[in-house]
Amino acid sequence: MGGFQGVKILKFDLPSDAAPGQGINLAIDTEMNNPSPIGVTLGTIVLDIGCNGTLLGQVKATGAVLQGNSPSVLNLTGLMTPQTTPEGLATVR
Questions:
Q1: Cβ atoms within 10 A of the Cβ of 76, count?
Q2: Is residue 2 assigned to a domain?
Q3: Is 20 a member of any domain?
Q4: Bridge partners, 76 (sequence order)
Q5: In this structure, how many other beta carbons lie within 10 angstroms of the beta carbon of residue 91?
Q6: 10-residue averages of pLDDT along the chain (93 residues)
Q7: What are phi and psi of 90, to 5 degrees?
Q8: Could you tell me whether strands 24-34 and 70-80 are parallel, antiparallel, or unpaired per DSSP bridges?
Q9: SS3 of 26, please?
Q10: Which of 27, 66, 87, 91 has fewest C-beta within 10 Å?
């Protein structure tokens, strides 16, 4: 969430394995602040997630709305992809 300021991760959950070879299902609840007085309806958003330069997967939120002058919670779900490089494996350990 480095491109957004004031983002808080409220919950990070890996509830189950995905289909064989696809990775792990993940759910992230985030709080994003919208400093503008104007609310923004984002609809469906898709974000790549990573850590320390390693791509971890992709998440999606549907019906996403950022309320004006307040924090909004976005519920993101997706897949954490399998890591196959030494760097990727070190990041997720």
A1: 23
A2: no
A3: yes
A4: 28
A5: 16
A6: 74 92 94 89 92 92 92 94 89 83
A7: -65, -35
A8: antiparallel
A9: strand
A10: 87
